Amino acid sequence: MIEFLKLPKISFDEKTHTYSLDDGEKLGKESISRISKISDGDNFGVASNWAAKLVSSEILNLFKADTSYTKEEIELMAKDAKSAPRKIRDSAGVAGSGFHFYAEQYCRWLINQKSEAEHPISLGMSSLRPDLPQEETEKRCAESIKEFIDEHIEPVGSELRVLYKPQSGYPIPGTTDLVCRLKSSPGDFCVLDWKGVTSFRYNIRASHLVQLYAYGQALRQSGNDITHLILVRIERESGKLLAHKFGFDHADTLGHLFESCINISRYKEPHKMEIGGKNA
Predict the structure, then answer these.
(1) Which residue in 41, 75, 242, 278 is a FRET match for 100, CA 20 to 30 A apart?
(2) What SS3 state is found at 70?
(3) Helix segments in 63-205, DSSP class H
């Protein structure tokens, strides 16, 4: 049976990357995903070490033993090596957007198949089964996602706009990847997020869990009985997939953390007042 979710009426502008209410009121560029990133703290040391290793490795690959180079050639190779971190980052971004898009389209197709079986008139969702991405890295990730969905997931809604209402201040919009039920336990009503990662060797990022909590809480605030959070991590290079399930009843810590991130994001430096001095 097709389930209908209770959702706020908001839209998203791809060009400006801003949300708006249906009455035209703009919600600005503040979003659940952006605020959640604050929970990761300052990772400059980790990022700089990673970049340095990539540049060093690229230099070793470019220089050949027993070969002399002109100053111009060395400068060109140094410039090329310096761009290695950016190329890796951009490649990861392409892979992530590729499998995200496939997951969205595949889940919508499954929902539409179910609606067509129950109703003679289509609900207007995508009726064409999406093809797997052509690029090999994206394809491996998409294949793992499809296998995971087919085995474990009953999609209810894909790429949904939500609105989180904080303890104080104006609401925060966001877009959750998927709301679903589990085939093994249909009573579990879950919000799911796909995340591309470099390696499972690294711990789960705090921002990924905080973001997932905020999506679930926003859906609950709109009247949807979300019971669990599911974080699905996909290794971009190998395409391997690892899913983590959390009970929403044990997510209080994530709620406190997200509210703290909101306060940090909205913090404004108080007006400076000079005390004392010659002219006091």
Answers:
(1) 41
(2) coil
(3) 71-82, 84-118, 136-152
Going by C-alpha positions, the residue among 197, 199, 218, 222 that lies closest to residue 207 is: 197
176 and 155 Cβ atoms separated by less than 8 Å: no
Residues 177 and 147: their CA atoms lie apart, in Å, by 17
Question: Looking at residue 278, what DSSP letter applies?
Answer: T
Residue 277 has pLDDT above 70, yes or no: no
Q: Which CATH architecture has domain 10-40+97-265?
A: Alpha-Beta Complex (3.90)
Q: How is the chain split into domains, by residue range?
A: 10-40+97-265, 42-82
The Cα-based distances of 139 to 97, 102, 162, 236, 241 in angstroms read: 12, 9, 29, 10, 13
Question: What is the dihedral angle through the alpha carbons of 135, 137, 142, 145, rounded to the nearest 10 degrees?
Answer: 180
Position 53 scores a pLDDT of 56
* Mean pLDDT within 173-198: 94
Tell me the whole-structure pTM to 2 decimals: 0.77
